[in-house]
Amino acid sequence: MNAPAKIETTLKDWETDQEVRWCPGCGDYAILKAVQRTLPQLGADPANTVFISGIGCSSRFPYYIESYGFHTIHGRAPAFATGAKLANPDLDVWLVTGDGDGLSIGGNHLMHVLRRNVNMQIMLFNNEIYGLTKGQASPTSREGTKSPSTPIGSYDHPARPAAFALGSGARFIGRGFDVSKHLPDVLKAAHAHKGAAFIEIFQNCIVYNKDVFNDFAAPKGAEDRQLWLENGKPMLFAGDTKGIALNRETLSLEVVDVTDGDWQSAGVIVHDVTNRSVAHMLIEMPFGPFPMALGVLYDDPRPTFEDAVIEERKRASEGKEANLAKLLGKGQTWTVSGTAQDPI
Amino acid sequence: MATAAPSDADRPHSGLPASPEAVVVRFAGDSGDGMQLTGGQFTLSTALAGNDLATFPDFPAEIRAPQGTLFGVSAFQINFGSREINTAGDAPDVLVAMNPAALKVNLAALKPGGLIIADTGAFTKRNLDKAHYDANPLEDGSLAKFDVLAFDISEKTIEAVKPFGLGNKDALRSKNMWTLGLALWMFDRPREPIHDWLKAKFKSKPDIADANIAALDAGHAYGETAELAGPLKQVHIDPTPSAPGLYRTVTGAEAVSLGLVAGAQLAELPMFFGGYPITPASAILHHLARLKEFGVTTFQAEDEIAAICAAIGASYAGQLGVTSSSGPGIALKTEAIGLGIMTELPLVIVNSQRGGPSTGLPTKTEQSDLYQAVYGRNGDAPMPVIAARSPSDAFEVAIEACRIATQYMTPVMLLTDGYIANAAEPWKVPNPADFEPFPAQFLTEPRGEELLPYKRDEKGARPWIKPGTPGMMHRIGGIEKHELTGNIDYSPDNHQRMTDLRKAKVDNIAVPDQDVCLGETSGKLAVVGWGSTYGPIHRAVDNCRAKGMDVSHIHVRHIWPMPSNLGDLLRGFDHVLVPEMNTGQFKTVLRDQFLVDARPLTKTSGQPFQIAELEREIGKFFDGVPGNEGGQVPANDQQLPSTEV
Ligand SMILES: Cc1ncc(C[n+]2csc(CCOP(=O)(O)OP(=O)(O)O)c2C)c(N)n1
Ligand code: SF4
Ligand SMILES: [Mg+2]
Q1: Which residue of B has its CA nearest to A338?
Q2: H or E segment and range at residue B618
Q3: Chain B within 8 Å of A324 (Cβ-Cβ)?
Q4: How much is the pTM?
């Protein structure tokens, strides 16, 4: 909830005249549409909205949204966005980054924007590959990913964006995927969160990492493989026939069967978005034995960086006068007389 | 050994006349001995006594180097006098050595016949070993060509602070104040300002304040008594005649900070400062962090890249973005500077140069980032560069940097160096009202029918449009953009035009004509400098002119673009000599820009030029001038031996 006044817009108002340069079939198109569909619902004002990105296919995003946009340099978008927010905290900032941009070259900045809690929405398009540079393995590529730079398969262990974000101190973690109809809801929740809201969006790079997310994102059987989380609701999936429970002995999550809708007796957990420990378990839940946790995994706001900076500036200025002439003549001074004139 | 008198007590000390024109004193001790504080307070009292002065703090890179070691020696040199002072002085007249290591490291610099004041209490076997002395130099006659005043300062300090019940270790902390007291007596300086300062500094620990004051007073009293005994004489230095007005001392780091605050005010903009700690640039971050009431936001970023990127982000959003660093940190900022040039946003980058390459000499001074500033980016990425010549000059230069950045929508690099950043000098406090304001303009509606974020004004600058402005939405970025709309445009013609436009914008920045700061506007030799070599060049040229040499001093502030008359000016001299603390970078730029036969005079010892070495080199151009044995034009790419300190 950044923009104070709600503005009436339509999806069309958020389209630019720029030719979109993504490959046909790229998941980025679907994300663009989801965002353009969400912004009018938020009552967002194009004049007050700023999309800031790094470098990558995903980072071309700002050119295609009719708002203010800043396509910066590889990995550093969080730093530009931090400066812009400190200069004008009223701006509604959306950050767009990729798995390479945000977790390789820009991992440091991503960590700090999250821990500082600068109020903005951070969308990390995770296609588990370097798209723009033609398909090298990225820090989120699964072990064994074959790519031009890893011809017989990658061997480094992938980073988990949401776990990284939580570990960095993020207070909002959302997850969605490009073509999901629920993506706008996740974006809206992120926007409603005051502070740095991190959204991992699985995105299909049709050219260099085609359909890697099909195991959970494919429409067929999606019910069984996706756990859409809702605050205050039990963690049910597979048409409410399965749920997620806490094994109190091992202190870990487990999948339990739910019969006749009686999730209570099956011990299914009710999702509490402010529970950081459960959020951590949901993020780390391995796909395969478990469904993919999607939606709002964690949402527990705390004071933002820019509010603290403004507050500090106010306190530091209290009772002080911004008189430059006095400042220049401060400290231990002496006067050389003659026709001395006091400059103060 | 703990006697007050040097061995031959009737010899007049240090050859100093009773009222010399100028005196150079170096305080040297262990890095834990508080020599920088001592020097700083001596500077203050000297300034209050109305003398012109220049200082040179020289401290080790280590925070707490092992006690007593050679590499743990910290020194503070001050040159003060009744005439104009340009440098911290070539060679000290007086060396205060608080331990054997300090003596060993600094002795070579001392003037023959100079005075050594040494604390015998610290000349223990252990400390002598650590300084690699086989025998105690205070006793073995090796200091015969100097005057030595050696006595047990440690013991006298302990005695002086005894009433305060401090343990020996704590008591010895006041040794520097005892020494300062002696120095104050020696040069007839008032003690009151130091008393006041101690009381303020130890407000919450009045006991410590009193102990230090007692030590200071004891050192002072010792001087009086010792004078009665014979060897020590008080020296009087008249105030320097200077223009009437209010004065204070200022370091370069302070002056840059104040200049940036003034520049932002003149541009009528809040300032955003992004920094990351690095020596010697951190001082600017520290100063600005205390000036929040001036609309300053300081941001200690996660690294230098984030610091500059945040500053660019703030400029994008309508504030004056500023960032500051040194050597390695400036290198990290390079890519972002390119983005600032491409997106044509105002930005001031302060580079407090230190010795390089890599980590190099973090606490020493050098001017070796000139190529980096002028040329060091990928692509054709022109950027204005401007250099301060002294601590006080840095104030005006910072204002000038803010002016260029906001008026021309461009990053500007401001060069200072470790010497300027740390050194202090008296400063006639300027009146902000004397500076012409240059209010920044924001575009709030299209100039014609269409919004054209890259349509330039008569200066070649594109409009500044703040996000948040209704109806002005547009996208910018680092990809080549269309000449007018700013939309992505890779077409060959457009890139050619944009490259030309970016270059023309910087080339055509209005900078004042170059003046000659000393001497004629044409003649036999021009000594051309930039940055902190101003002091030694000025004094050396002045001395050479007094000897009848036809030599002028030109000091360039605007490194890029250069003043348009500079080429013609240089061509009016038979020879051009360019002293600089690098391997000849400015010389190369001058040759390239003007096809003049600029000769280099280079030094990269981490120490500033000495006046005498410059005089010697200037002398070589003047065969037959009395007092000059040289007469040889220095060979190309001559490197001064860098062993003097
Ligand atoms: C400093 C720098 N290094 C390297 C590059 C080249 N580069 C551009 S995008 C990219 C990786 C992008 O991967 P990702 O962030 O995952 O974005 P995607 O294209 O997959 O959306 C790289 C390495 C660059 N532009 N700048
Ligand atoms: S390379 Fe991949 S990520 Fe990039 S545009 Fe093409 S499909 Fe999309
Ligand atoms: Mg990617």
Answers
A1: B244
A2: helix B611-619
A3: yes
A4: 0.92
